[in-house]
Amino acid sequence: MEYHYSDLCLANDHLLADPYAAEYTPQYLIPNHDAEYEVRSSILVDGGDRFGVTAAVFDKFEELVWMGNQGGHVTSYYGPSMQKYTSFQVHESEEVRDIITVEQGLYALTKSALRHQIRRGIPKNTYKSTNMTDMQCLYQVSTTKLLMGGHQDKLLELDLSKMKETVLPIQEEGCAVLRSGGGSLVACGSADGMVALRDIRTPKAAEHTFRAHNACLSDLDMQGDLLISCGFTDSAGVAVAEPYVVVWDVRCLRGTNTGVEGAWSLQTASPPLLLHFLPAFSGRAVTVSGDGHVALLHVNQPSANQSVFQIGTQSSLSVSVMDVSSTSQALVFGDLTGHLHLFSPQHNHEPVFNNFSRATEFADQVVGLPFVGFKETTFQFSTVPLPPLSSGSKWFNELPPEFFKKTFRKPKPIDPEVLKTMKMQGPIGYAPNPRNSRRNQIPYVEDTLEDLNAAKQIENRYSPQPIPKYYQKMDLRYNKHGPNDVDLENCNKTGFPGLESTIPNAYCNPMLQVLYYTPPVKSTLLAHTCAKEFCLSCELGFLFRMLDTSGGAPCQAVNFLRAFRTVPEAAALGLILPERGSDARVDLIALIQSWNRFILHQIHYEILETRKKEKEMALIAQNSPPKARASNTKHPGRSLATPNVNGQFSDEYQYTEIEFLGPSTEFEQEETREDGWPVKEEVGDAEPAAVNNENHELQNNHSEREESEISRLFAIGRNQLNRCLKCNKEEERDSVVLACALQYPTGAPREGSEARGGFVELVRASLAARRSTPAWCENCSRFTPTTQRGRIVRLPPILAINCGGPHEKAYWVKGAQKEMPDVAKRGGSGKPCRYGLHCARPGCRFKHPDRPSSSQASSSKNSPQDPHCVLPHQLLIRLQSDGDIIINDKSEQSSAEAHSSSNRVESKHRKKHITTQSEEEYTLSAAIVCVEDNPKNLVAYVQTSKEDVQWHLFNDLSIVPVSAEEVIHFGSWWKTPCVLFYTTSAARIATPETTS
Fold first, then answer.
1. Cβ within 8 Å of residue 775, ≥6 positions away
2. Contact at 8 Å (CB) between 590 and 662?
3. Angle at the Cα of 792 (from 786 to 796), degrees rounded to 5?
């Protein structure tokens, strides 16, 4: 590959033309077996028939050799075979004095100019100056600085980044050679035989100056602290070449003119003209004389044998330049006859120039047509491409790209009869085979136009709904030295402050926004102060204060999350994520629901502990010692809280395990309740009252009857009644929970539960749980079937609802569950069950009084089902005197079936003379939603304005207004509710004190 480039538009008549290449074949050289090096290549360079070689160097980064001649032309050769790589002109008439290679290209120095070119021959810069009169040598100080010398009374230091020069005056008669031994000293040799050692950091003043030769200096080199030189001496007014090499130890130099103490000489067979150290060896140098005699010297051993060999030059006194590769495996010599000679060790026929050379860029090879004989019978003529047509048309054998696309046969859509008769068991559907195809036969869409159009319509109908951009997780990358990648002004134009998600455990940002926009909770936390070191209530109050004063600017919950990571209960519950990237590998739905329970109980505990401390401090201030408190009889292993000076307490709030298990791992056994709802219970417990899945008993604390502002807002009072079916022994216990967990049905829903009232029925059945499960009976002294019924004692001002785990996603995508077929159709009989209402067998085939009959099942089966699940905006909950509750959907979308169902239930209660104890109207105020994206994301719907009902979507820093219909619809595959908050009208505007 060759490049001939001349930016000056000069004629290249002096260059070697290809037709005459055969006249300059390398001559045959007899190898010398006594020498260490032997010739590998000897070529005539470009323009060698007219100009001699004046510069030759090895490339420091690639396997190239660079040369420059007297005509201002530069040529490079690749590898040990000296294959010509590039060739270009750098000056119209001046010879090339020196060349150095850098990472981006090379610098070629002529008498009055410095040329920078890339290796492919394209020029980048030409530097000229009035101070450049007779330049001679180059030295690279650093990646951005060059030092230039010549036959003039100054040195030039050039800054390559700014292209500015610095003039350094010198006392010597010019500078013909610049060499360094790898340290901070650089040797400057002048033509009159003087050598000056200068520090690279301060090159203006010479450190040492001494005379190396009497007449003039020919060449010098340095390796470490050793300096070698050769030159001429004055004999009767005539300059005579010295037949030896002088070795100087720069450490022994004293003064400015003396240096004899640290110098010795090495005799050579022929007067040396050029010399160079071998970089790969310590204390070895190579010298060459003008007639081509080369000698390898041992600098530290003057009496050692020298290896001598001869360069096949065309005339005497013609060797002009030499260089040694960094590996010392190659030597290059250039002469005035235009030849380059490459030498390498005798047994190394493939020398490398650098230890870690990068690949050299070559031109693309021109691919020619293959040669095929007339008698060839196995050649495939289709492999030869046809030439393009000039008119722009195509050949007949060129098929369109869609004919080469691999496609699979599309199956036909599922038979509507299968979908109609399918019954769901969790996420799995079962349906009888309609027998409209053969066994093991899969019907595919035929390649007819009608089937293709029908399949296309089905694809368009069931194409997945795209996820809006403002629901997706924002990937923020902050740039300290420039503008940010994300335009924060376009993400939030509402004026509400957002929370950044660039810190670990920031998945709880939606819950923090919900708590911030809940007025009673916000006022409670803002008024809370204590002396505890890591108090989450204090940190939440500080965060809310920062959000109030931010003016719409984004904030960071750094202090709160730092205190959150120190809570041991949070780590035990798995609420602390190790890294930010681990959010995609965890179950965010279960995580945020566990976090909701944890934060409510933690704030409740911290408020009670602060109240205790205030009472203790008040007693201390009155100089009356506090009375000794009795130990906790229910939990004898726990001690009472003892205040310390710094505000810490000796005991910690003990969380029960069953309260904070996630929805997917919260239970291990599953039973069926009397009304068809699932019964989930934890691992076997000896006490029948300890199997409630949500009842985290706040009375475990010493102050069992004390209430905080959080318990007044969120606590649901319950009375649990357990009755043994064998001995009819009954036990009662009171408990409170701060969050209600939905329990989804696996069988047929209760009578009166229509598709539109599916969510209402879920809430009702979850609040007033009724189930039958085996438990330990003290009277019977064994495990017996036990019925458990929960009766609501008190309704909270704020109803927090956990919507369950990801295995319940099918309910929200398809809406209300389909009816189970009647038991009689499955082969069962109409015989009543012997256990009646107390039957604990899941899927029992016998008749039960509270389950619908065949006619009812058939009629309910034909009732229309809403394909999307819609949350009610308002719930009217009535607490009856017997502990049961009635829930009505008061939103505008409530259907007449829901009203008729509630009327039937109310009439049944009136027949039993049961009165309404309390009635609360709840309004949806906030919702936490999981977006099934990659990665998953948690967002929050918050009703920011109560007067005109305005909703906003909070997605970390992105805050956008949304409609009320978008908040309540959950029919999309990518949106699943996690936590819902229903608030009464009194709690939305009142302080915590007034809600009690």
1. 685, 688, 691, 722, 724, 783, 784, 786, 788
2. yes
3. 145
Residue 818, classified by CB atoms within 10 Å of its CB into exposed (0-12), middle (13-18) or buried (19+), is middle
Nearest to 60 by CA among 435, 413, 327: 327
Where are the domains positioned within the chain? 33-345, 416-461, 497-621
Q: 497-621 is classed in which CATH architecture?
A: Alpha-Beta Complex (3.90)
**Residue 339: Cβ within 10 Å count:** 24
CATH topology identical between 33-345 and 497-621: no
First to last CA, the chain: 91
The CATH code of the domain at 33-345 is: 2.130.10.10
Q: Which helix (H) or strand (E) holds 981?
A: strand 975-984
Phi, psi of 909 (to 5 degrees): -70, -35
Q: What is the 3-state secondary structure (H, E, C) of 458-474?
A: HHHHCCCCCCCHHHCCC
What single DSSP character describes residue 207? E
**What are the residue ranges in the chain where pLDDT is below 50?**
1-30, 255-259, 485, 627-704, 747-756, 816-829, 851-868, 892-903, 905, 908-911, 991-996
Taking the CB of residue 949, how many other CB atoms lie within 10 A of it?
11
CA distance 469 to 474: 9
> 759 by DSSP, 3-state: which?
helix
Residue count of the chain: 996
Query: What are the CA-CA distances from residue 863 to residues 25, 418, 897, 904, 984 (Å)?
Result: 100, 18, 11, 18, 33
Residue 592 · residue 931 · CB < 8 Å: no
Q: Tell me how far apart the alpha carbons of residues 934 and 624 are, in angstroms, rounded to a whole number.
A: 62
User: What confidence score (pLDDT) does residue 76 get?
Assistant: 96
Phi-psi domain of 642 (left: phi exceeds 0; alpha: psi -120 through 50; beta: other): beta
Burial (CB count within 10 angstroms: exposed 0-12, middle 13-18, buried 19+), residue 507: buried
Distance of CA 455 to the CA centre of its chain: 40
Q: What is the pLDDT of residue 522?
A: 93
Beta bridge partners of 777: 782
Strand pairing class (4-5; 83-89): parallel
What pLDDT does residue 632 have? Answer: 41
Note if the pTM is more than 0.90: no
d(CA 179, CA 221): 6
Residue 467's nearest CA partner among 939, 947, 959, 961 is 939
Q: Which pLDDT does position 871 carry in this prediction? A: 86
The radius of gyration of the chain's CA atoms, rounded to the nearest angstrom, is 47
CA angle 937, 943, 949 (to 5 degrees): 140
Selection from 87, 156, 97 nearest residue 122 by Cα: 87
Taking a C-beta distance cutoff of 8 angstroms, is the pair 248, 212 a contact? yes
Residue 129 CB contacts under 8 Å (≥ 6 apart), including other chains: 156, 165
Contact 196, 250 (CB under 8 A): no
Q: At residue 268, what is the residue type?
A: T
SS3 836: helix
**Tokens, residue 530:** 């204590």
User: Residue 996 and residue 982: Cα distance in Å, rounded?
Assistant: 17
Give me 157's structure tokens. 């230091």
* Exposure string for 892-925, b = 16+ CB within 10 A, e = fewer: eebeebbeebbeebbeebeeeeeeebeebebbbb
Contact 807, 664 (CB under 8 A): yes
Q: What is the pLDDT of residue 514?
A: 94
In terms of phi and psi (left: phi > 0; alpha: psi -120 to 50; beta: otherwise), the region of 9 is: left
CB atoms within 10 A of CB 377: 5
φ and ψ at residue 538, rounded to 5 degrees = -65, -45
121: left (phi over 0), alpha (psi -120 to 50) or beta: left
